[in-house]
Specification:
Elements: H1 16-24, E1 31-32, H2 49-61, H3 74-85, H4 90-93, E2 97-103, H5 104-119, E3 125-129, H6 134-141, E4 146-150, E5 152-153, E6 158-159, H7 161-170, E7 176-180, H8 193-205, E8 209-214, H9 224-227, H10 229-236, E9 242-246, E10 258-264, H11 269-279, H12 285-294, H13 297-328, H14 337-340, E11 345-347, H15 352-362, E12 364-365, E13 371-373, H16 382-393
Parallel strand pairs: 1-12, 3-4, 3-7, 7-8, 8-9
Antiparallel strand pairs: 2-10, 5-6, 9-10, 11-13
Helix pairs in contact: 2-12, 2-13, 3-12, 5-6, 5-11, 7-8, 13-16, 15-16
Bound molecules: 4'-deoxy-4'-aminopyridoxal-5'-phosphate.
The site of 4'-deoxy-4'-aminopyridoxal-5'-phosphate has 13 residues, from helix 5.
């Protein structure tokens, strides 16, 4: 018998598992709306032109592949913090942001979770209900205790703002409140600027620490600054903030695993101390791509234009889906929630049995919480999807 026998298989990942099932389906109309990855109108993966350019420049430069420092590439850390907080932000000018390059959003969140577990023993992390599926895994893995705050109201397919505020108020003083900086995953429902202000009030009152997960900066509205407004508002109030960034979506660098963890008003040593025994130092390629694009005004402009194009395509699909649903559905149901949502996803409000119908009858692959990725949808497929949703609802 193997001494490794006691190691059980991890349960299949609910999102990655959807792609596996999609691959196994041979139906010609099949649609993969599970994974949150940008596709072209032809439903093909997309490498940004600006990334291809940066890659070419890097190849020409022929830099060495020596180890990076534990905290990552200095040029990357500088620009990534500037991108999030804004170059002119006092916390940037006063060098009050400690940035450590992480293994994309997930690895950066995992570092933050380890930091919380080690330096804030017993402190609770509050996550939204629902949230991105991996949040719970990350905090479980780090042994950082977590609980949920209300977020989604199924009656309105909107924000349960009162529930959210009440739960944040009720959390033990000094808790970490995990917030999606923009384009909440999976609901696509963001607080309004006024609601953000009230959330900041309560967090401040209770001496909580805001902990942002911002995986879609520039991808939600098409503007990097607009999408970072929530984070910047908290920082402008003088609060200490943790923020995990990802370049998977906005630069299409999914597999390069490039992101960062920022701590406003703290020392970088703590996070670097955690990284050394975990993986020593992060990979260099994605960091160089980001540093070159964000640090060069011509490439930066090009990136912004491509990001606007991607965000624009998703918005067009959102509108077309809404139009198709509204014109095809004769039941009088109000579909306007589709338009109110933002970012890559739409939360349809379909329950598990209805999601099963979507997949089994219509070959539409999606997570069982009713979330669909609009980035995996084309204008040409909106009518088909609307038929599937209406059939599954009624
Ligand atoms: N946070 C949220 C809310 C996400 O949606 C994602 C991507 N699905 C991530 C973090 C992390 O992704 P990655 O590790 O590829 O940066």
């Amino acid at each position: 018998v193997s001494r490794f026998e006691g190691i059980t298989m991890a349960p299949p990942d609910p999102i990655l598992g959807v792609s596996e099932a999609f691959k196994a389906d041979n139906h010609e109309l099949k649609l993969n709306l599970g994974v949150g990855a940008y596709r072209t109108e032809e439903l093909q993966p997309y490498v940004l032109d600006v990334v291809k350019k940066a890659d070419k420049l890097l190849l020409e430069k022929g830099e060495n592949r020596e180890y990076l420092p534990i905290e990552g590439l200095a040029a990357f850390n500088k620009v990534t913090a500037e991108l999030l907080f804004g170059v002119d932000n006092p916390v940037i000018r006063q060098q009050r942001v400690a940035t450590v390059q992480g293994l994309s959003g997930t690895g950066s969140l995992r570092l933050a979770a380890a930091l919380i577990e080690r330096y804030f023993p017993g402190a609770k992390v509050l996550i939204s209900s629902p949230t991105w599926g991996n949040h719970k895994n990350i905090f479980n893995d780090a042994r950082a205790p977590w609980s949920e705050y209300r977020y989604y109201d199924p009656k309105t397919v909107g924000l349960d703002f009162e529930g959210m505020i009440a739960d944040i108020k009720a959390a033990p003083e000094g808790s970490f409140i995990l917030l999606h900086g923009c384009a909440h995953n999976p609901t696509g429902i963001d607080p309004t600027p006024e609601e953000w202000r009230v959330i900041a009030d309560v967090i401040q009152e209770k001496n909580h620490i805001p902990f942002f997960d911002i995986a879609y900066q520039g991808f939600a509205s098409g503007s990097l600054d607009t999408d970072a407004a929530s984070v910047r508002m908290f920082v402008a109030r003088g609060m200490e903030v943790i923020a995990a960034q990802s370049y998977s979506k906005n630069l299409g660098l999914y597999a390069e695993r490039i992101g960062a963890i920022n701590v406003v008003c703290s020392s970088p040593e703590a996070a670097a101390r955690i990284a050394r025994p975990m993986y020593s130092n992060p990979p260099v390629h994605g960091a160089r791509i980001v540093a070159n694009i964000v640090g060069d005004s011509a490439l930066f402009k090009e990136w912004n234009a491509e990001m606007e194009m991607m965000a624009g395509r998703i918005k067009n699909v959102r509108h077309k889906l809404f139009d198709s649903l509204s014109s095809k559905d004769k039941s009088g149901k109000d579909w306007s929630f589709v338009l109110k949502q933002i970012g890559m996803f739409s939360f349809t409000g379909l329950n598990k049995a209805q999601c099963d119908n979507m997949t089994n009858k219509w070959h539409v692959y999606m997570t069982k919480d009713g979330r669909i990725s609009l980035a995996g949808l084309s204008l040409a497929k909106c009518e088909y999807l609307a038929d599937a949703i209406i059939d599954s609802y009624h």
